[in-house]
UniProtKB/TrEMBL annotation:
Catalyzes the conversion of UDP-glucose into UDP-glucuronate, one of the precursors of teichuronic acid. Keywords: NAD, Oxidoreductase. Its EC number is 1.1.1.22. Pathway: Nucleotide-sugar biosynthesis; UDP-alpha-D-glucuronate biosynthesis; UDP-alpha-D-glucuronate from UDP-alpha-D-glucose: step 1/1. This is UDP-glucose 6-dehydrogenase. Residues 320-424 form the UDP-glucose/GDP-mannose dehydrogenase C-terminal domain. NCBIfam families: NDP-sugDHase. InterPro entries: 6-PGluconate_DH-like_C_sf (IPR008927), NAD(P)-bd_dom_sf (IPR036291), UDP-Glc/GDP-Man (IPR017476), UDP-Glc/GDP-Man_DH_C (IPR014027), UDP-Glc/GDP-Man_DH_C_sf (IPR036220), UDP-Glc/GDP-Man_DH_dimer (IPR014026), UDP-Glc/GDP-Man_DH_N (IPR001732), UDPglc_DH_bac (IPR028357).
Length: 440
């Protein structure tokens, strides 16, 4: 099938490459010509395991193309996926200008039937706006061409995006007519493993499903973070509590890990957008607002532990930070809890020696205003003379370090384990002062 994907960001590039891998002829459009040139030369603008090979293979096979020419991209695909950014506007609601611009671009150049698919995370009602924008441009052109607008939200996780796309738990398709449903079914047929995972629903329900899924997951995290804080206060161990509640199949073990707060490109933005969306209907989202407030608070947790240990004035102190990306297996620094930790410590006069296996370049860009941060290229170098180690992101390389070496390098053998990766008793026996999250 001939498919166009508008936008070569995270979702667009992964979707385009995966659709090509299944034998489709895919053209990816981006208005950023420099990015298109970079992609054509085999460059990949983001870090995502497996993506580089996947793109290369499909470009070589002639199934994946990149262009900045809107007319060519509109002519190419019978199906046009819109996968452009929906950044938060000033009030936290999703800014739809790029989605609507993409829709107008399609309308300006189309000469026959098109299926337009919203893949970007967009508020309920966006498909109607897209439909109206397309109709308006067609009317301006004085042409009457058939088109439909479907919603097909993406549930991919950074770091596991290709697996999530290739073997989805479910594929949600919101569509109003049988023709569109039939085409979407054909596109996703090869991605179904043992049974049909395609869920067809009305467009608005599909749009809301995406937000509801992310908000539910964010809720679990904030809930667990608050439980962890309570565990600390009452002398309990959240790791045991986690196992105790996870055994109930209604709760389950997934996504119950406390930490330094959730970050990334989805949860913070989507939780906010959901509140704004509900606000427009005069419906307060009490749970979601609390989830957001609890998360904002949690991001300060690790820095507060340091302040409790060393006092407000941290001048002359140095801390090692392991893990900068908002989670492992990505170089994404958006809303990363490490940023709050680092800002809070350096603001009080401390210096930071930071290490991340992949996100160091991204982190250096985001933190370039902060001369108190030194990036080191070896994880052990970060520890040299430090008053403590703060583990923020649970990359596998941090899982089982050489603790004797860690102990020898640190000035003060303090380990602040922001992801409960280490065995508290072992570390204490090895002479460390250890503190996790929610482990009294
Ligand atoms: C998320 C959703 O999982 C995905 O379905 C959606 O399409 C986009 O948003 P992503 O942002 O890539 O994906 O990362 P995810 O693995 O879900 O983690 C999000 C944040 O939650 C990270 O900061 C992570 O550290 C944190 N988290 C996750 C926890 O603190 N505890 C957990 O138990 C799980």
């Amino acid at each position: 099938m001939k498919i166009t994907v508008v936008g070569t960001g995270y979702v667009g590039l992964v979707s385009g490459a995966c659709l090509a891998e299944m034998g489709n002829d895919v053209m990816c459009l981006d208005v950023n010509s420099a990015k298109v040139a970079f992609l054509r030369e085999g460059g990949i603008p983001i870090y995502e395991p497996g993506l580089e090979d996947l793109v290369r293979r499909n470009v070589q096979a002639g199934r994946l193309h990149f262009t900045d020419d809107v007319a060519a991209s509109v002519a190419h695909g019978d199906v046009q996926f819109i996968a452009v950014g929906t950044p938060p506007g000033e009030d936290g609601s999703a800014d739809l200008q790029y989605v609507l611009a993409a829709a107008r671009g399609i309308a300006r150049h189309m000469t026959g039937r098109k299926i337009i698919v919203d893949k970007s995370t967009v508020p309920v009602g966006t498909a109607d706006k897209v439909r109206a924008a397309v109709a308006e441009v067609l009317a301006e052109r004085g042409v009457d061409l058939p088109f439909s607008v479907a919603s097909n939200p993406e549930f991919l996780k950074e770091g596991a995006a290709i697996h999530d796309f290739m073997s989805p738990d479910r594929v949600v398709v919101g569509a109003d007519d049988e023709y569109t449903v039939g085409v979407m079914r054909r596109i996703y047929e090869p991605f179904q493993r043992t049974h049909d995972r395609l869920m067809v629903m009305d467009v608005r329900s599909a749009e809301l499903t995406k937000y509801a899924a992310n908000a539910m997951l964010a809720t679990r995290i904030s809930f667990m973070n608050e439980m962890a804080n309570l565990a600390e206060a009452v002398g309990a161990d959240i790791e045991q509590v986690r196992r105790g509640i996870g055994a109930d199949p209604r709760i389950g073990y997934h996504f119950l890990y406390p930490g330094a707060g959730y970050g990334g490109s989805c949860f913070p933005k989507d939780v906010q957008a959901l509140s704004r969306m509900a606000g427009e209907h005069q419906l307060p989202m009490r749970v979601i607002e609390a989830v957001e407030a609890a998360n904002d608070e949690q991001k300060f947790r690790l820095a507060r532990k340091i302040v409790r240990r060393y006092g407000e004035d941290l001048s002359g102190r140095c801390f090692a930070v392991w893990g900068l990306a908002f989670k492992p297996n990505t170089d994404d620094m958006r809303e990363a809890p490490s940023l709050t930790v680092i800002e809070e410590l350096t603001r009080r006069g401390a210096t930071i020696r930071a290490y991340d296996p992949v996100a160091m370049d991204e982190a250096a860009k985001v933190l370039k205003h902060n001369p108190r941060v030194t990036f080191v290229t070896d994880m052990y170098d970060a520890l040299e003379g430090a008053d403590g180690l703060v583990l923020v992101t649970e990359w596998k390389v941090f899982r089982a370090p050489d603790f004797e070496r860690v102990r020898a390098l640190l000035k003060t053998p303090l380990v602040l384990d922001g992801r409960n990766q280490y065995n508290a008793a072992d570390l204490k026996a090895a002479g460390f002062e250890y503190e996790g999250i929610g482990r009294a």
